Amino acid sequence: ARRLSTLLLALLWLGLVTALAGPQRLVPTRDLTASGREILLALDMSGSMLIEDFDIDGVQSTRLEAVKQVAQRFVAERTGDRIGLVLFADRAYVAAPPTFDLPAVSRAIEEATIGITGRSTAIADGLGLALKRSAASDATSRVIVLMSDGRDTAKRLDAVQVARLAAEHGVRVHTIALGPEDLETRPASRDAVDTVTLRAIAEASGGKSYRVRGMEDLTAMAEDLDRLEPNPSSRPPVIVPQPVWIWPALLALLAALGIGMNRRAEA
Predict the structure, then answer these.
(1) Are residues 226 and 188 both part of a single domain?
(2) Is residue 32, in this structure, part of any structural domain at all?
(3) What is the pLDDT of residues 34-85, one digit of tens each?
């Protein structure tokens, strides 16, 4: 019994001294501080997005399926950015307000459906709504990624004029012209994308324009966007100290309880 008491007393003092010393262990972690950047995706939901002219892993797929896959991958890698989603066809609406909740934005992309707001292409409306949200933001860096596979058929607004307004508010607009045909080479095609207008939108706002004819172009575009708008989470891990005094303190507590129980047993 005396040996047990001596052992428990030694453990009590060891635990107390160690806990009071404030032991720590170094843990690698990511710096998840917000980047200060806000990115709004403006995606075309017109009827032509159902055309099957993209190949995904050997399977003929629609433009919408290809766009969803790349957009979701892009969103998943934007840790530290605030991301929002605007969908447009005849009209535009906010499918996901700017948020750090990236899974929620990804779900909104997955649930995007053709026909909810018509089947035409109101590019200026989609850009205008995205700009309205961006202009009201307190983010230090604001970006709009506009993706369309058609021409502006609504013409309620001048899309290039909206892009100039975006530049005045410090908002960059990157545009993506999606589809195998364009109005420059196939002016009579109903499914041709208006590369001229999309290029002018990007140039007017200080952004970059992309021409995407297939899945390889779409993947390369996403990688280039990552370079233009670098992901803050790509920085190396940060080593932070994590206190571990609780374990020696717990040892001291158990030793104290043991001493008390041992004395009762001796009595």
Answers:
(1) yes
(2) no
(3) 556 899 999 999 888 888 877 777 888 888 998 898 889 889 888 888 999 9
Dihedral of alpha carbons 127, 130, 136, 137, sign: negative
**Angle value at C-alpha 177, between 174 and 182, nearest 5 degrees:** 145
Residue for token pair 């089947």: 119
pTM of the full predicted structure?
A: 0.70
Residues 73 and 177 in one domain: yes
CB contact set of 135 (below 8 Å; sequence gap of 6+) = 142, 169, 171
* Look-up of token digits 């995007």: 112
Exposure string of 7-43, with b = 16+ CB inside 10 Å and e = fewer, is: ebeebbeebbebbeeeeeeeeeeeeeeebebbbbbbb
Q: Which residue, chain included where needed, has tokens 């499914």?
A: 191
Q: How many CA atoms lie within 13 A of 174 on its CB side?
A: 18
> What DSSP state is assigned to residue 117?
T
Residue from 177, 202, 201, 205 nearest 191 by CA: 177
**Distance between CA atoms of 66 and 73, rounded to whole angstroms?**
11
Q: How many domains does the chain have?
A: 2
Same-domain pairing of 116 and 217: yes
